[in-house]
Design brief:
The protein is of the alpha/beta class. Helices cover 39% and strands 15% of the residues. The protein has ten helices and eight strands. α5 links the parallel β4 (75-80) and β5. α7 packs parallel to α8 (154-166) and α8 runs parallel beside α9.
Length: 227
């Protein structure tokens, strides 16, 4: 990591902009240099790739994989975790260099599910609640979660979002597919809209946005605060 820089308030961005342009976390791509380039293309918020919280908090070598600079702002550091203590400790280490801490509750990869992270958390709202609470108690930067449609019951998607909101989560990103669906399958705008209508915090939409028209359709179908 590098020296901490003056950070930017993401919550103020939500206040000042009716629509935020967001670059979602992308494996191998969302590193520092890539995020810096994004700033020239009207991106309000950029996420890091998903980082394993237990490894990050335990290994200085692993922390070298995260870099930032004064142009990389605002940046949200996304962690995968299943233990509140691991997540809180990782958040404390990275907080001086970040504008937000995100908990990944949606990674659909089989290896992630076996490790009890990502979409594994879809059926464990109490654990997500505990992890959000731990982060909010440990650091002063905003905390968010990224979720996806529950495989069998959309009410559980809403429950997950509302429980996180109860613990003070600052915004929620929603992907409109289940962990079993391929990226080529149709996106469920309805579940994103349902989450948006069920919580008071800002909601970001994720999935199937490849053009400005796709983004416009997403806004029209869901009423979200950013894409």
């Amino acid at each position: 990591m590098v020296y901490a820089y003056k950070r930017q308030s993401i919550l103020q961005l939500f206040e000042d902009n009716p629509r935020l342009n967001v670059c979602a976390p992308m494996v191998r791509y969302s590193k520092g240099a890539f995020r810096e380039v994004l700033r020239d293309y009207n991106v309000h918020i950029a996420y890091t790739p998903m980082i394993l919280a237990d490894v990050f908090k335990s290994s200085e070598h692993a922390r070298h994989d995260f870099t930032t600079n004064s142009a990389d702002c605002p940046v949200v550091v996304q962690f995968a975790a299943h233990d509140p203590v691991d997540l809180a400790q990782a958040a404390q280490i990275v907080a001086p260099f970040a504008d937000g801490i995100d908990l990944n509750c949606g990674c659909p990869q089989k290896w992630a599910y076996k490790e009890r992270i990502g979409a594994y958390l879809s059926d464990r709202p109490e654990l997500v609640q505990d992890m959000v609470r731990a982060v909010k108690a440990a650091v002063s930067v905003p905390c968010s979660i990224k979720i996806r449609k529950h495989p069998t019951d959309e009410r559980k998607t809403v429950e997950l979002a509302k429980r996180a909101e109860m613990m003070g989560v600052d915004w929620i990103a929603v992907h409109g597919r289940t962990r079993h669906q391929k990226s080529t399958e149709p996106l469920d705008y309805g579940i994103i809209r349902l989450v948006k209508e069920s919580v008071r915090v800002p909601v970001l939409a994720n999935g199937s946005v490849f053009s400005l028209q796709d983004a416009e359709t997403m806004y029209e179908q869901t009423g979200v605060d950013g894409v």
